């Protein structure tokens, strides 16, 4: 068998696509399922729907033209007979299937009493040895036929070196591998792999399929350990980096003290706690890498402001980035209001940086950032562009961090390279990370949670309403506006086309303007020039608009406490977390608020049951964690994690929902392994991640 590099380029390309570069990659490429070619069954004993292998003699063979052209072949063994049907076939196949030929045939048996048949079975001349193991079926790609992949995996397995990395003191206790009450010992990796690639036919297929077999347990334990090792290693590497020490300035005249004294509210206990956690990180010479998590409306902005003043008090600069301009503008307005008067006294200021800025404005902002006069810089990803040179950046705050890619975060870190240090990083998110994800993919992050809403909020009532009752909803809007309240109307998401999105929003805007005479209805969509967006948003914030029709540009972070009703059209097209974020835009003041989820019933009849069930989940709970958990169930971690990880680094075998015991073990074992067996840890990481582990460091 040739080594992979001797293969044709097309095949190599397919292998690369599957991430199969090294022998070890092939060895770890495990079957999706198996076929049993180890036995030959009598025709009469094959059940309907069973994948069966038979040996039989052809008794008749003819091409029929009705009802459609097909090759129909009768075969017979000692127990009975069976019809084979082929709707497409080559002359050579027809020849093999000639009357009198003895064949070995494999396919799904259909029918019973009225005659058995197989559609398009696989066949060849009878005889020859039967394999002694089940035949693996691997995930493959176009251009890489299954039999070739099988041979490549088998030969890689014979070449590959599999040193044991789980020395006895690191191996999980036997109890981890108990299956159906019988304790199993930990299989060694080679045995486990050999078994999974070529299981003996007597194995309980169920245990292979649900991955509960000890061989699978070994592989999943290995994989989880590799993931934890890479996360702990990233953490250790970071602890070797230097960051500016931002000591707390105990002085009533400090910016921090003056900001806190001037706030119109007292911090909640949860806010006080997270401010303290962040403060402890900032006082250290190692870069902070912390995620601030808090449900929508929990008050993350003021926590961010207090972190910023801490940096500014220590004589450094802070940058705050948000994924959209609207969101950045809201932060800017709020922070400017809080900090500018305080900063002005010291001759310092807050700068604004976004993409579509006027040249003059931008040049001035850049100069203030470079000179250090701008103590705080707020903006979109424009903040991390190359031309932006900071004087002394010590803290970077990233709002809704899951929307930023790894590369953007790397760029941010490089902003302090001139000082030979890295900035502290604070990431903020309103999307709660379910516990298992936090323990696995986010294990290299410290997490602070604001688990309490500011007092005086009234819970949002969520209603599911069919869009055939839109009129009633519009009447409700009129009533709210008459009471001096404001309303959001979120237009459906049209993923395929931004243009459609826009025309739809425009149509809704016209419809509502007509249905609500005397009510000022505003329109906000992603294609608007940013100045116009800002102007519309300002009108709404100041209460001049009763209704704001918008595409999902308001999805995150917008804060208008007087808004008490949100209508989401075609709610079934949104993800749960997204709906939760949207709903968080209302219920920010003391008045009772409501969220109406309109779902479509017209064109295709009715909304699908799963979609409805998802929407029901929204009506049942307002707990962001519960919603995130259900969202994770529905969408799986890949989508949930978004840009955080390259697809490569996702878990392939372990399932966070069922393998928490293995995850617990891996979490406990990874630091021990790095500490006491660094060479084994390196070997283990190399085996599983090869060159991919860089992604995990951002
Ligand atoms: P989010 O966590 O969603 O970003 P914000 O920071 O926008 O939430 O805060 C939501 C609203 O609550 C804002 O109007 C903010 O000023 C207000 N707020 C924040 N903290 C408190 C508090 N401790 N008491 C009262 N209101 C608060
Ligand atoms: Mg926010």
CATH topology of the largest domain: Rossmann fold
- Report the span from N to C terminus: 40 Å
- The tally of structural domains comes to 4
How much helicity do the residues have?
25-40%
Largest sheet: 7 strands, parallel
Notes on the structure:
There is one protein chain. This protein folds into 4 domains: 1-31 and 140-158; 39-125, Beta Barrel (OB fold (Dihydrolipoamide Acetyltransferase, E2P)), CATH 2.40.50; 255-450, 3-Layer(aba) Sandwich (Rossmann fold); 460-621, Rossmann fold, CATH 3.40.50.300. A 7-stranded parallel beta sheet has the order 11-12-10-13-14-9-15, with helices on both faces. 40% of the residues are buried. It contains 22 helices and 21 strands. It is an alpha/beta fold and 698 residues long. The two termini are 40 Å apart. Bound molecules: adenosine-5'-diphosphate and magnesium ion (MG). Magnesium ion binds at residues 300-301, 557.
Brief descriptors of the model:
single chain, 698 residues, alpha/beta, Rossmann fold, 22 helices, 38% helix, 17% strand, disordered C terminus, binds adenosine-5'-diphosphate, binds magnesium ion, Helicase_ATP-bd
């Amino acid at each position: 068998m040739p080594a992979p590099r001797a293969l044709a380029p097309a095949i190599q390309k397919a292998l690369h696509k599957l991430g199969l570069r090294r022998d070890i990659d092939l060895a770890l490429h495990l079957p999706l399922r198996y076929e049993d070619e180890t036995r030959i069954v009598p025709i009469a004993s094959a059940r309907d729907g069973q994948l069966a292998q038979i040996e039989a003699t052809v008794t008749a063979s003819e091409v029929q033209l009705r009802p459609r052209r097909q090759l129909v072949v009768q075969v017979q063994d000692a127990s009975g007979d069976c019809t084979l049907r082929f709707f497409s076939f080559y002359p050579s196949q027809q020849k093999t299937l000639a009357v009198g030929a003895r064949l070995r045939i494999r396919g799904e048996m259909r029918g019973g009493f009225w005659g058995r048949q197989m559609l398009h079975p696989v066949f060849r001349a009878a005889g020859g040895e039967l394999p002694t193991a089940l035949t693996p079926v691997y995930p493959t790609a176009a251009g890489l036929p299954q039999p070739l992949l099988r041979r490549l995996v088998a030969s890689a397995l014979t070449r590959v070196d599999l040193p044991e990395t789980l020395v006895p003191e690191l191996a999980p206790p036997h109890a981890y591998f108990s299956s159906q009450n019988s304790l199993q010992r930990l299989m060694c990796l080679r045995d486990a792999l050999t078994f999974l690639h070529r299981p003996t036919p007597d194995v309980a297929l169920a245990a292979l399929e649900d991955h509960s077999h000890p061989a699978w347990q070994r592989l999943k334990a290995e994989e989880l350990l590799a993931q934890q090792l890479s996360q702990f290693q990233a953490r250790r590497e970071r602890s070797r980096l230097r960051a500016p020490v931002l000591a707390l300035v105990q002085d009533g005249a400090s910016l921090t003290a003056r900001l806190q004294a001037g706030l119109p509210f007292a911090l909640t206990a949860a806010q006080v706690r997270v401010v303290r956690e962040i403060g402890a990180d900032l006082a250290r010479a190692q870069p902070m890498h912390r995620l601030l998590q808090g449900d929508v409306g929990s008050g993350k902005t003021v926590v961010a402001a207090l972190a910023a003043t801490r940096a500014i008090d220590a004589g450094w600069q802070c940058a705050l980035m948000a994924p959209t301009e609207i969101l950045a503008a809201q932060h800017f307005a709020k922070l400017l209001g809080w900090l500018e008067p305080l900063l002005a006294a010291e001759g310092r200021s807050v700068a604004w940086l976004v993409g579509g800025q006027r040249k003059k404005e931008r040049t001035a902002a850049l100069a203030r950032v470079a000179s250090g006069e701008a103590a705080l810089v707020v903006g979109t990803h424009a903040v991390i562009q190359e031309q932006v040179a900071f004087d002394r950046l010590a803290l970077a705050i990233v709002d809704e961090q899951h929307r930023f890619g790894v590369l953007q975060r790397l760029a941010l870190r490089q902003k302090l390279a001139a000082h030979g240090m890295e900035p502290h990083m604070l990431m903020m998110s309103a999307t709660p990370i379910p516990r298992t994800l936090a323990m696995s993919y986010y294990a290299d992050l410290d997490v602070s949670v604001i688990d309490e809403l500011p007092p005086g909020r009234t819970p949002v009532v969520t209603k599911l309403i069919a869009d055939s009752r839109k009129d009633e909803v519009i009447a409700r809007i009129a009533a709210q506006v008459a009471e001096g309240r404001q309303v959001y109307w979120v237009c459906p998401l049209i993923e395929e086309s931004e243009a459609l999105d826009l025309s739809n929003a425009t149509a809704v805007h016209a419809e509502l303007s007509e249905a609500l005479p005397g009510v000022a209805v505003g329109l906000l969509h992603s294609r608007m020039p940013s100045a116009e967006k800002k102007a519309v948003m300002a009108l709404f914030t100041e209460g001049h608009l009763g209704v704001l029709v918008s595409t999902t540009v308001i999805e995150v972070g917008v804060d208008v406490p007087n808004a008490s009703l949100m209508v989401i059209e075609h709610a079934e097209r949104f993800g749960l977390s997204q709906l939760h974020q949207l709903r968080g835009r209302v219920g920010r003041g003391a008045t009772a608020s409501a969220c109406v989820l309109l779902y479509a019933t017209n064109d295709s009849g009715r909304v699908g049951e799963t979609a409805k069930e998802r929407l029901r989940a929204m009506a049942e709970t307002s707990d962001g964690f519960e919603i995130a958990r259900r969202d994770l169930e529905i969408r799986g971690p890949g989508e949930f994690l978004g840009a955080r990880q390259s697809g490569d680094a996702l878990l392939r075998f372990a399932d966070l929902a069922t393998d928490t015991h293995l995850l617990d073990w891996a979490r406990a074992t990874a630091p021990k392994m790095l500490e006491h067996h660094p060479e084994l840890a390196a070997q283990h990481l190399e085996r599983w991640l090869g060159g991919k582990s860089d992604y995990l460091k951002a």
